[in-house]
Amino acid sequence: MTNLASDSEDERRSTRKRRAILDAAATVFLRNGYRGTSMDEIAALAGVSKQTVYKHFADKERLFVEIVTGAVDEVSDPVHAEVLALADSGDVEADLRDLARRQLAAVMQPRLLQLRRLVIGEANRFPELGRTFYERGPGRTIAALADAFKRLAERGVLQLEDPSLAAAHFNWLIMSAPINRAMLLGRDEPLAGGDLEQYADGGVRAFMAAYRNP
Amino acid sequence: MTNLASDSEDERRSTRKRRAILDAAATVFLRNGYRGTSMDEIAALAGVSKQTVYKHFADKERLFVEIVTGAVDEVSDPVHAEVLALADSGDVEADLRDLARRQLAAVMQPRLLQLRRLVIGEANRFPELGRTFYERGPGRTIAALADAFKRLAERGVLQLEDPSLAAAHFNWLIMSAPINRAMLLGRDEPLAGGDLEQYADGGVRAFMAAYRNP
Known about the structure:
Two copies of one chain form a homodimer. Chain A is an all-alpha fold.
């Protein structure tokens, strides 16, 4: 019993340290950029030794991939569940509007925009960072949308030839304008209420006009 | 006469040097990133003195803004002329398809993708770089498209309430999927022939289905 208790105490301590390292690392990466960040600085901010950092994460790239994975999954997981439910929707336009608003609000969170910018800036030198972001983020959402749209076409609700292209159209009709403005203009702010609905509802309206089965 | 001739000789030399500095700077910026680039290195590669670099460009940011301006205008100028002509088009769908293909090919040039990535990576710290890229690139094209679409709606060819939103939809229906893949995946390659037409024609098809006056 004593051994088990102390094992689980060790585990809890290890989990706490891991969490502290990830939080510290996210702060330092976003402040100094990927190349400007050292494991020393992360260890100092997390209040652990450099050895402890390396015990949890093999190198800087693994640590950053972990941060990207966590941040993207946090947005992507709930969206994914909602997309899967679309296939059986009784009111596709209304459900797409709900989805679009929630997706846009999630994607436009300042920390995620900053991370996206950092990943893009390093995508040539560290392709794994960008691949992780793409595959777990837009890539995953678009693939799930494609499945749902295929099903909706089989049900006669939508009319389309290429479910993947339709899914990409939906995704980017909603998100491109605000994301590209944010990326290039360096404005990492959540959208103002009215803007969010304008982008989301306007994108859904265009999508339904293009793909509704007449 | 002698003075005039030597003035113009000086001018030609100055123009040549300016050109050499811009070419060298573009090479060094793309290789080392914005912060990793020094005026010394640019001067050395251009084969001029550092004083000469500063005679032409007040500082590193001005020099980079000049490079972005040149590269974006080279793509944006011909697109702009073509967009203005759309308002009087006799076959809007065919003309949009031509425009979309040319625009996509131009935007997906490796050097411009690299520059876009560099600008995004620095947009927080050096917002003027991103603003220049946005305003002379997508911002300008979308504004011109909005004017053309407004005119086409007045002519009864298109049906829309918000010309700016329709213009953003057109722009991003064509370009978002390939640009976002390239940005995140770090693949700075021109699109393969079939892909280019699929994105361009598919985007135009969706746009016309959404905005054609029935």
